[in-house]
Structure of Methyltransferase family protein:
Amino acid sequence: MCAESALPTVTRDAILRKWVRQPPTTPLIQQLRDEERQRALAELDGGRVLDLASEANVTRGVSADSLTRVDFSDDASSYASETIGDAVDEYQSADPERPTLPFADDAFDAAVSIGPYDWKFLDVESLTAEVGRVLDDSDGKFVFSVPTPRSPYAANGWPDNHYYEPREALSLLAPDWRLLDADLVFQYPYYVHMALNTLPANLQEPFVGAAERASDELTARGRWNDASYLVLAAEPLNYRGYLDDALDCLFRPVDENGFWDMEDEKILRGLDYEIASDDENPEFEWTPDDRELWRYAPFGLMGALQWRVSALGTDRYDDELRSALDYFADEIESGTLSAMPSYGIGPLVCAFSLAAEVFDATHERVAWELFEHSRERFDFTHAEDSLLAYGWSYLAERESGSVVREALSEALALMNDRLTPGGLFVFDNHTTRRHQNQMYACWGFARAIEVTGQTGYLENVERVLERTVDERMRDDGAFVWEDEISSIRRARRSATKRLGFRPPYWNFLYECHQTFFVNAVAHYEAAGGERDFDREVSRAMAWIYGDSSRGDLVELSELGVPMRFLTVDDGLDVDDQMYKGSYEIGSYLMALTNLLAEP
């Protein structure tokens, strides 16, 4: 959160100077200081460390190859230098209300800040972003602490301190960080705490030990709402690096385990794999799948073009993009349009509309042909027809008349009629309840709202997203494929699974389901939605980059994009799912572009 109303500079500087070296205190109060310090220092691994105005004893305890300290006033920095001396290699200061750290990108391996996140005059959102900038983007770590309203000091209503509910604290990290670890620190409630602190020091010691054991118990049980302080360790998610690797994979030649077919100058449908070693430490042998399934490459092309027209886009892959567009234009001209499902046509309308923006207007003719064909052929009775509304919305932004906008408004009304009060789109297809179909409907629905300006529908998108989080999102951040499976069906399929048959579809966790949700949230926000889903977006992406049972799914595949799926029992070897599809890469590119392009 941004810094609140500023204190007089003299008062603020006095607080900052006083914080540098805390005076001796009672055993119970010292117990909190020791808990925060010890738990934070245990998270640090040396290297180049940045200390952000921690209390002096924390700074002295840091083991590092080099140690830099930043305070939030020149006076506090000078006093820290006098107090800590040459245990720190460099002292700097920064403005707490507009914190800009005077260091280059990737300058540190770790950062620690124990205490300052309490201060209301510190712009912690800007500071957290700056910490992410100066940390090594491959394996940097940030450790910091915040008090909660359960702190006994919160009862005093101290005007200079901020107290964070756990969700609020975690929202500081969303969506650009992955939570690595959390220690939950116990303190006695206010009146007990105050009474115990009046006891002689030797009589406080048993209560100190009990508080330490309570902290361990809260941490082990994950009882966030009972903690007085949170010590959090997080790493920045290197979205830009992931985006570069994904683009490289999509346009890397097939014979180098990429998705670019050099011979036909098109995006490949997918790469199949076999596991060449034991399942515990798998190595994958990838082979191209060049079947033309019209719902795959169009998605990949759409994702790449959304990146291309964004502020992040460059001309690096323009030759490949033009060739892929030409390939589809030729296929459409040759009469294959009638074989394309709405799942493929909608993304192609989007892709050709965006191509008209970034290349030349001739691509808009193809987008119009696709629009006219799809408007006549589809009636929004199938969940995947929602992707037509999604594609049409990009053409509508280029249209000078009202034909596409009228079709979009009609589609919006038809999709709205399919929405239940409980936040579920119910179309005629039997797979309508599945996660991907719910998210496609959100994409088309939110984009239609944005383009037509019919914001009264936004609360309906919000309801679907909230239901998705409440009913489908697991504790590890993954989304289940379908919820509310009957006990009879579940028992029957569990039995067949034990006999060696294919696992039921609700046993699969797909990487693309994570990005489908991220993109739905992005379009909801672009349409004007105000509900904050950043925390859930962060959890969804963190599942891909380390929170899954297999760890980092990008590292696992060695392709530059994540593995396609895991089963709930950690499997990778279900025969008809052992591939990576280009449609997944399209959604992945869209998600990374949306995250990086955020204001």
Notes: Residues 12-236 form a domain with the Rossmann fold fold (CATH 3.40.50.150). The longest strand covers residues 177-185. The chain has 22 helices and 16 strands.
